[in-house]
Design a protein that fits this description.
binds flavin mononucleotide; TIM Barrel; 12 helices; eight-stranded parallel beta barrel; single chain
Length: 357
């Protein structure tokens, strides 16, 4: 049987050479929001992994939208020029398609670098964070400011501005971060959104901010390229988002003209019912694929490549997203491909001897 995972996927005018996607991975190493040398090395290694699409890390749409002071951002011309240099370098040295994830941290912002103190808010150089409601992330975090309607409009404009810069970067794919407990997720989840205006209460109201952003970004992003969103399949908390909410949101995004959703989950607060286990988002992704007509990407401890092959062959999902696997076993795709198809053109000539092909 031909492994579907190694087949091309054409979305609009962009053709991915296979179904493997490198998940976005924040490096918390930018200076003034700009990539540094580390990013060149790190991303080129990932670009040459054999995957079809490389998602560049969550990139803040505004200064307050960063998680830490060292996040990448796309808020001004300087950020644009520096990202342009980086993406030109990647395109020159790899045929991988390149995407960027844009995000606003909301109440998860103003955080320490994770390797300094994980899950801790800044003591010095902190900033007042924004959220749907003034509800702390957890007990040792500060209260965010409940966003006014003016704040809402400003953040919508920031997403639009970042998407305009992304368009000029000639990226193949743009992804809105609606998951992992960041601002858009904070609006959607009833755990973090207790607003009593048009942006809170019912599912329709809680999704309003996400939908408004999705619409303005869609209107600006070229139809020929790929547009998607990372969404949360569920909150893993009683009273939180469930798969029904994710299907509702996906259908809305589909109607607006999004090309895919990447199904992830969790991240709103630390204490949940979640127990890490292989393929933990698979059931959620499968349910979304079954109920919606949109490309579905799934990530989350998909460690076994045979499992990944199986779920793509069965058309249960379209794309497989991995993060840590590319760090632990950077060439797992090349190895697999050499076994399956020794004549493949993806393994670099310089490495063919390593795989006896
Ligand atoms: C170092 C690191 C940085 C991450 N940064 C992001 C990010 O920028 N955006 C995002 O959506 N997820 C981020 N994640 C989550 C991953 O994209 C992925 O969803 C998660 O690690 C589960 O997949 P895995 O088991 O294949 O690693 C990050 C994960 C890691 C390990």
């Amino acid at each position: 049987m031909k492994e579907q995972i190694f087949t091309k996927l054409k979305i609009n005018s962009i053709t991915l050479k296979n179904r493997f996607v490198v998940s976005p991975m924040c490096q918390y190493s930018s200076r003034n929001g700009n990539p540094i040398k580390w990013h060149y090395n790190h991303l080129l290694n990932l670009a040459n992994s054999g995957a079809g699409l490389l998602m560049i890390e969550a990139t803040a749409v505004s200064k307050k939208g960063k998680i830490t002071h060292s996040d990448m951002s796309l808020t001004n011309l300087e950020n644009f020029k520096n990202l342009k240099k980086l993406t030109n370098f990647l395109k020159k040295n790899s045929d991988i398609k390149i995407g960027l994830q844009i995000s606003h941290s909301g109440r998860k912002g103003s955080a320490e670098l994770p390797w300094v103190k994980p899950n801790t808010s800044l003591k010095n150089r902190s900033w007042k964070t924004h959220s749907a409601s003034s509800i702390k992330k957890e007990f040792n975090w500060p209260y965010p400011k409940e966003m006014t309607l003016v704040d809402i409009e400003n953040i919508k404009s920031s997403f639009l501005k970042a998407s305009k810069y992304s368009k000029k970067l000639k990226l193949d794919c743009l992804e809105l971060h609606m998951a992992h407990g960041y601002l858009l997720h904070q609006f959607f989840s009833p755990i973090s959104n207790k607003r009593i205006d048009a942006y809170g209460g019912s599912r329709q109201n809680r999704s309003r901010f996400l939908i408004e952003i999705a619409k303005i970004v869609r209107a600006n992003w070229p139809k020929s390229r790929i547009l998607g969103a990372r969404i949360t399949g569920k909150d893993w908390i009683k009273g939180g988002l469930t798969i029904k909410d994710s299907i509702y949101l996906t259908k809305k995004l589909q109607k607006i003209g999004f090309d895919y959703v990447c199904v992830s989950s969790g991240g709103l607060v630390s204490k949940t019912d979640f127990k890490p286990k292989p393929n933990f988002n698979y059931d959620l992704a499968k349910a979304i694929k079954k109920n919606c007509k949109i490309n579905v990407r799934v990530g989350g401890m998909i460690e076994d490549i045979n499992f990944a092959k199986k779920i793509v062959n069965k058309n249960e999902v379209d794309l497989i997203s991995n993060a840590r696997k590319y760090i632990y076993e950077p060439n797992f795709i090349l190895k697999e491909l050499s076994n399956l198809d020794p004549k493949n053109k993806i393994v670099p000539n310089q490495y063919r001897r390593c795989y006896k092909i």
